[in-house]
Amino acid sequence: MSTTQAQVARRRIKLRSKDFESDEYLRKLESLTLRLTGAFPGEPPMDRLDVAKLVMELMQGHEDTLGAFAPATAPLAPRAMVKLPLRHWRDYTQGGALFVILRRCLAHKHKHQLRRFDWQSEHKCAEFVGMMRQCENDLRDKGVLRRAKVFLSPDVPNDEVPALRRSVLDMGAVLAGAQLEDGVTHVVHRDHQRQSQQAGVAGGTARAAGSVLGMTAAGAGESAEIGSPVSLATTMTVDPSANAAAGGAECVVLGVSGKEALVHYRRHPDSYDTWLSVATATQSAAPGSNLTSPPPKKQNLEDHLGLLSARGSGGGPTHVLASWLVDSARFNEWCAEEDYEWEDPTVTAMKASKAGATSGGTLGSLDDEGGGGGASAEAAGEKRKAADGEPTGGQGPGPAKAARREGGEHVAPPQFAERVAPNLIRRQLVTPHRAVAVAAGGDGGGGSVAVV
């Protein structure tokens, strides 16, 4: 692996309390608060604000003890555990991942009669991480947290295999012996595109990202006032040398809301998504950025059940570049897969050949065939929206509708589902099957009957 890949991430995550006190965020916690109050009947009741403060406290401790800058470990040494995926902190569903985390942490707090969680000393840090490990076990027992099973493709150079194997172990994943082995979630390929990507990024894209990474040029170590818990974006302290550490990471604007824009740094976990001022984001936006509409709703209605992590996004294993493993181990958190998508070299060659064959046509025909300069960027933007659960036709996701089945049965949308066991999911019915009403009426479906 290159020296750039081995450098530690320079961005720091710091949450803002005012974002966790917003009305929009507090509304998300209403049902969760009621269920937590019922789980501890002998303790003082909690309101939404109490739960919001607890979430912020736990997320900050989670980052400080297990993140890239965790003081208890060397930059690339194995941590006690891998950071919990950000989607679990976004799961506000009944009995979902966030409820499981908060219930375990509150039980620990009441048992040890703690006023607040502390991780400053070595002893307290070990105690906090131990509590997080219990949360991880609870999530696995419930079936919402699965282990990644990784197969290293034969195209990976032999000299890179040992480092990739270590990354797999550091991330708590399982190394598969064959691509067709049962349960494989990811196939890792050689970074054959890496050199050309870095060359392109070093031009306009890296300069765009560099303007964001150097936005504290006059004061290294200053904190940008950014962050929103609605998408769980964060405030980050920026180091001027972060551009080199990130390998020329691009700043992709996911959407605009008011005077702020939500940006995603490629080759970073989603927990590093950040709110910047619109002016800064516009100046630094990479191709494919969304500068005209609000950010997509980053909520997959099925993913809170942990289904996608077990089968891949398209029903089979996800094919990614080898740097996905290395960067994930560096952050101690799984990076966004769509930033490392692998394409078969044969398909790449066919596209290049097709683009060359149509080079004599008009600019419009090149754009239609995918040979235009902005085509790949647009496709990347649409692909990320699709991964976040938003349709790519320009329409918002809209309200989820109940699925209608045979017999007039209506099933509630997936966000109301609850996993009660690793292999058992409880779904809610809006309207029962006609057979239920027939059985209840005792008339065989023929209407009212005379009773003799």
From TrEMBL:
Region annotation Disordered: where it falls in the sequence: 353-419
Domain Chromo: residue ranges: 5-357
InterPro entries reported for this sequence: BRCT_dom_sf, MARR_BRCT_CHROMO, SMARCC_N
Domain of life (superkingdom): Eukaryota
Pfam families: SWIRM-assoc_2
SUPFAM superfamilies recorded: BRCT domain
Protein name: Chromo domain-containing protein
